[in-house]
Write a structure and sequence with these properties.
The complex is a heterotrimer of chains A (309), B (199) and C (660). The longest helix of chain A is centred in the first third of the chain and has 34 residues. Chain A has 309 residues and is of the alpha+beta class. In chain C, helix 5 runs parallel beside helix 18, helix 7 runs parallel beside helix 9 and helix 9 runs antiparallel to helix 11. In chain C, 62% of the residues are buried. Classes of the chains: A alpha+beta (309), B mainly alpha (199), C mainly alpha (660). Chains A and C meet through helix 1, helix 2, helix 3, strand 7 and strand 9 of A and helix 4, helix 8, helix 9, helix 10 and helix 11 of C.
């Protein structure tokens, strides 16, 4: 482990040098998840570079040594049968490499799918991030706030994103905080992130979702818990409440700037969590009064989705 | 065309052997086709939307009739192939004829079943469940329909041209096809109907 | 939508109108040309109705090359649009259509027919056979592929191209979000050509299992035929999944069912699963025949037997099994949890092991060899390091936690092009150059061929290596534009330059075909490369029956045994040869399928029903038809064989002439 880091560091420097300017977004992590992923990436780049170099060296050697122009005219290449030990080595070494990487991969899988390292005991901030053509809606149920196309988050606190979509499959991605996850229409996925450093980060939908896909981005601002609390207060003082009509208008396909509301759309148009073990009674009381929360699903099928259970 | 008399008639030429092997491979592809349909059905079975559930629409009587009829037809086509190997053309034609009539009966009951689903509000568009159900049954039913025509053509050809190696080969391959449809039906019966009615 | 509105292009641009005019002019030009030169009869008797595996192979080859230019034009447009920030060459809709058609055309209508071309051309020769098991079915496979390809290609002038990506994920591809008929084209064109592929699979497996020359046990098959056998097994088990997925997608779009919709219980994730259960094996359907071609070429130009024959076969079998167990890695980010991701992460990485074995076997085949750097060998030698890079980035992507960062980015795009281009495209170009003299009787110019190789190789590296970097810098795939601040500009410009070199490379390829046709000597004998396996034991050009006497085989390199070890390849008396008759039915069925497909795309029910009935009528007619083929008698064979002996360079001298 001790030797790994200088090596990884030099690889990172190399890649950085190749690009010439600031470090690549994914390799410039600002939170524990992205850091784990970046270190996995650097580790695999390292090992794989060695593999490629070995193959290149063998190939170059063979091509130089056995090229026809270097050999006597009457040279007849021999008939060579496979040597069992050569084969064992050719199978054995890849198996060892793959076994090691599998081990790391499985470990990382469990790490990225649970609360961020270092924040296990803190209560996460839950944010519902839902996409519609071609915007992101961020609902803070705890704070009673909803924003469109921008995201304020406190640093040093675990974040739990609940992702779903009002349309096609999208993918919620803030490269510097951690990898992406899909947002889909009939289930809610969970993405754990955390930010260590205050700053502005790029966030986007990474999964192709139609005409407005390229511009389907949002700004992420990470700030201290104190500043975040101040922002919450300010929003409650200044912003308008989000009504159902207003929200339905927001869902129409197109692009919007940044917007801020008090209240969240979850109150009248809950997330499709019912398939996944959430308390059904809570939701049922919610959608008695709502008629249609988006153009694709109507009230009838929402009710009957429950009857299937 | 060389005819090898040590082999059964349907295997007696090179081309006949190729045809039979090729058809077995085709049946391998058919297994994947129906396996995919079953996978879709099992995935979507519980996703009934605003429509009825399996237990709401399945009726035991027509399903039992269909099963009985189709299983019997599989037996009669077996007898038909046996008769063909003994060189008894008329017996073979009779058994093939009975098989097709049973197939027609199956299809009739299936059509009744579909109209029943329509009347109880389980149409193709109702839900993911009904779409998966009707596609699975419909694909099987379409296979049976195709088989009816195919079988009829074979009967006509055997009648006209006799039990040639070519016709024996066609009849044998057709019997493989028919048995296969029967196997698929057993799966449909067990894992769609029985399971659905018990849910 | 109004009846006629559906036929209009939803987002017309001058480029599309120009294409319409060009298509019309070219079609008229071809029709007039054929009529003027009175070639209709020739085309009909020699090509359209042919059931000869060699001619069908050549038709696949020509179609693949034509489609390659269609797919390549799409690619160039994409790179041009992204070459600098805020480019205005294409709008979002047009760009979406182009990357969709690029993917579909390249996979289904370039690489698939290309590998079918080689299977058709080479497999019957390598097993010492006279044709495939079901020659007429083979013709039908081709015409269905062709009908599918044409149906897909007219989409951009009638009704609009599909625009939901080649993966066509629902609900984006559903009626709600994809309102033009484009995705209907996708569903039906792929369905039609997919049926053709499935039938080729059945045909080839039967051929290889049942029609091998005397003495050729399975473990004496030449390596390309082994790869073809395994590929076709994958085809037979993978394509029915696509058939069903497309059927469901079609009913969703045309009949309003709810398989993949967001309401009434529909499940969008089911499409993604089905698509990739077919899609990942499809990757190996593309690459395994390429591996087979490399094995033939590397062994020939090293002058050595293929190292590790058994482990080559074993690794292909293992790859084919694993290929069905990895599909979830295409959507690690769908939220199926750490456990599922871990399993699929491990199975995916496991594929690196058999693939690694193959790489080392190729390296050891060159060991102690006598390596001749011909054009096919250059591609093979270039393939090894470049494909290794593609392979190891695949292992990187297989680490599912890290994949959260790679997924949907240019890194992924770089990875799969890095496997497909050096892996498959290089193999196809190498195979084209290698087998060209066998089928056309002259060699492609080596000098131009080498410049093509360098342009394509350098173009490839410049186009795709920068994408690894921009991917890690946060450039998502399928974005039609990006802003200045992202800093993606310079590297994308580099990609564009690379793709321009790539394009020039293909122009030189075409020029090479023309130049060599004009200038290459025709007296090259039947074995210009000093090759090893039995397909080179035929005359050039190959007589329609391939071998006057079936070869007696004792190893996987029977031709080499004949040349070097005095093995008697052809013994015994000449006998009457049975050949299949030509048939126009496959061609007619192709047309009917095209009409059926087109009618379904636009929901024109009357012609659709008529066409479907037409299909069944053709099948019924076939059932009643008695066609036992024809026989070529010994006297005719002797006459044909005698012609070859008069040609200088042929027969006895063949393996001593023209060495490169």
């Amino acid at each position: 482990m001790k030797i790994k880091f200088p090596f990884l560091g030099s690889m990172l420097a190399l890649v950085t040098f190749l690009v010439g300017c600031e470090p690549l977004m994914v390799l410039n992590p600002k939170g524990p998840m992205a850091a784990r992923q970046a270190s996995d990436i650097m580790l695999s780049i390292g090992i794989m570079t060695i593999v490629v170099i070995v193959v290149l060296v063998i190939l170059t050697f063979i091509l130089f040594k056995f090229r026809a122009s270097k050999q006597p005219n009457d040279y007849e290449p021999p008939h060579v049968e496979a040597n069992i030990w050569v084969e064992v080595i050719c199978i054995g070494i890849p198996i060892l490499i793959v076994a090691y990487l599998s081990f790391v991969s499985v470990q990382s899988n469990y790490i990225v799918e649970s609360a961020p390292t270092g924040y296990e005991n803190e209560k996460p901030l839950v944010i519902y991030a839902s996409s519609s053509d071609w915007k992101w809606h961020f609902s803070y149920p705890e704070q009673g706030i909803e924003t469109v196309n921008y995201l304020y988050i406190p640093t040093d606190r675990p974040l739990e994103f609940k992702l779903y979509s009002h349309g096609p499959i999208t993918s919620f991605w803030i490269p510097q905080l951690g990898g992406q996850k899909y947002a889909m229409a009939d289930m809610v996925t969970t993405l754990h992130l955390a930010a260590d450093v205050p700053g502005e980060y790029m966030g986007r939908n990474a999964n192709f979702s139609g005409k407005g896909f390229a511009e389907n981005i949002f700004n992420v601002t990470a700030m201290s818990q104190k500043e975040f609390d101040e922002w919450v207060e300010e929003v409650h003082e200044r912003a308008e409440p989000l009504t159902e009509d207003e929200f339905n208008k927001l869902l129409e396909p197109g692009h919007l700037g940044q917007m801020t509301f008090t209240g969240t759309h979850l109150e009248f148009s809950p997330a499709p969590e019912h398939n996944h073990g959430l308390d059904i009674d809570d939701l049922e009381s919610n959608h008695i009064d709502h008629t249609s929360h988006d153009s694709q699903t109507d009230s009838t099928n929402i009710e009957t989705d429950h009857s299937g259970h | 065309m060389k005819i090898d008399h040590t082999q059964p008639l349907e295997y007696s030429t090179d081309q006949n052997q190729l045809n039979i092997l090729g058809f077995w491979i085709f049946l391998g592809a058919e297994i994947m086709l129906f396996a995919t349909l079953f996978t879709a059905y099992f995935t979507l079975e519980g996703r009934t939307g605003s429509g009825p559930t399996p237990a709401d629409i399945f009726e035991i009587t027509p399903v039992l009739i269909e099963t009985f009829v189709l299983l019997t037809s599989s037996f009669t086509i077996g007898l038909g192939v046996h008769a063909m190997r003994l060189g008894r053309k008329n017996a073979m034609l009779t058994f093939f004829g009975i098989t097709l009539l049973l197939g027609l009966g199956f299809l009739g009951v299936e059509i009744y079943e579909f109209t029943h689903y329509y009347h109880v509000g389980a149409t193709y568009q109702t839900s993911a469940f009904t779409a998966a159900l009707l596609t699975t049954l419909g694909t099987h039913g379409a296979h049976v329909t195709l088989g009816l025509f195919w079988g009829l053509f074979i009967i006509l050809q055997v009648k006209k041209r006799g039990l040639t190696p070519e016709n024996a080969n066609k009849s044998f391959i057709f019997s493989l096809y028919w048995h296969f449809l029967d196997v698929v039906w057993i799966f449909i019966f067990s894992f769609i109907y029985l399971k659905g009615m018990m849910m | 939508m109004e009846f006629f509105e559906r036929f209009a292009i939803p987002h017309p641009s001058p480029m599309i109108y120009a294409s319409m005019v060009a298509i019309a002019l070219v079609s008229i030009g071809i029709l007039v040309g054929i009529t003027y030169f009175k070639k209709w009869g020739y085309l009909w008797h020699e090509w359209f109705t042919s059931v000869d595996h060699k001619k069908i192979g050549i038709m696949y080859l020509i179609s693949a090359l034509i489609m390659l230019f269609r797919g390549g034009a799409d690619a160039i447009l994409m790179r041009a649009q992204l070459s600098s920030p805020e480019m205005k060459l294409l709008d979002a809709q047009h760009y979406n259509e182009i990357f969709t058609t690029h993917g579909v055309v390249m996979i289904f209508f370039v690489v698939m027919p290309f590998i079918f071309a080689f299977m058709n051309l080479i497999v019957p020769l390598q097993i010492g056979g006279r044709d495939v098991a079901f020659p007429r079915l083979n013709a039908l496979s081709f015409w269905l592929f062709f009908a599918g390809a044409m149906l897909f290609n007219i989409s951009f002038v009638i009704g609009g191209s599909p625009d939901a990506g080649w993966t066509s994920y629902f609900p984006l591809a559903g009626n709600d979000f994809s309102t033009s008929v484009g995705t209907n084209y996708y569903m039906l064109a792929l369905q039609i050509s997919g049926i053709g592929s499935l039938m080729t699979g059945i045909n080839m497996i039967t051929t290889i299992l049942k029609m091998r020359a005397p003495g050729m046990t399975l473990m004496k098959l030449p390596m390309f035929t082994w790869s073809a056998l395994i590929t076709n097994v994958i085809i037979v088990f993978a394509f029915p999944v696509l058939t069903i997925a497309l059927l469901m997608g079609t009913t969703d779009r045309l009949f309003g069912t709810n398989f993949f919709t967001t309401g009434n219980g529909g499940m969008d994730m089911l499409w993604a699963n089905f698509f990739w259960v077919w899609g990942h094996p499809e990757v190996y359907i593309l690459i395994l025949p390429a591996f087979g071609l490399y094995s033939e070429i590397i062994s020939t130009f090293s002058g050595r037997n293929l190292y590790g024959y058994k482990s080559m076969v074993g690794s292909m079998v293992l790859i084919s099994l694993l290929s069905f167990l990895v599909w979830t890695h295409h959507f690690f980010t769908m939220g199926q949890g750490a456990f599922t991701n871990s399993i699929f992460s491990i199975t995916t990485m496991a594929i690196a092991v058999p693939t690694g074995v193959k790489i080392f076997n190729w390296l050891f085949t060159m060991w102690k060899g006598k390596i001749r750097f011909t054009v096919p060998m250059l591609y093979s030698v270039g393939f090894i390091p470049l494909f290794t890079i593609g392979g190891v980035t695949g292992v990187m992507l297989a680490m599912s936690a890290a994949d959260y960062q790679y997924h949907n980015t240019m890194f992924l795009v770089a990875h799969f092009h890095n496997t497909i281009i050096p892996g498959v495209l290089f193999a196809l170009l190498a195979g084209l150059t290698y087998y060209w003299p066998k089928f056309f009787g002259f060699m492609l110019n080596e000098k131009i061929g080498k410049s093509t190789f360098w342009l394509v190789a350098v173009g490839f590296v410049l186009t795709f290596f920068p994408m690894y970097i921009t991917g890690l810098d946060g450039q998502a795939r399928r974005m039609y534009t990006y802003s200045e601040e992202t800093g993606f500009g310079p590297l994308n410009m580099l990609s564009f330059v690379g793709s321009a070199l790539f394009a020039i490379g293909f122009v030189t390829l075409v020029y090479n075909l023309y130049y060599s046709f004009k200038n290459s000597p025709r007296n090259i004998g039947s074995d210009p490369w000093d090759a090893r396996s039995v397909e080179w034991a035929t005359h050039t050009p190959i007589p329609e029956y391939n071998f006057a006497r079936l070869p007696q085989v004792a190893s996987s390199e029977a031709f080499w045994d004949m040349k070097k070890k005095g093995h008697k390849l052809f013994t015994g008396e000449l006998k009457e040869i049975h050949m299949p008759n030509n048939s126009g039915v496959p061609f007619v069925l192709g047309i009917i399928f095209f009409i059926a497909g087109f009618s379904f795309v636009f929901a024109l029910w009357v012609p659709a029903v008529v066409a479907v009935i037409g299909i069944f009528v053709c099948m019924a007619l076939r059932s009643f038809e008695q066609d036992h083929g024809r026989h070529i008698n010994v006297k005719e064979i002797k006459e044909i064989e005698a012609q070859y002996e008069e040609v200088p360079g042929n027969e006895d001298r063949s393996h001593t002439t023209t060495r490169v």
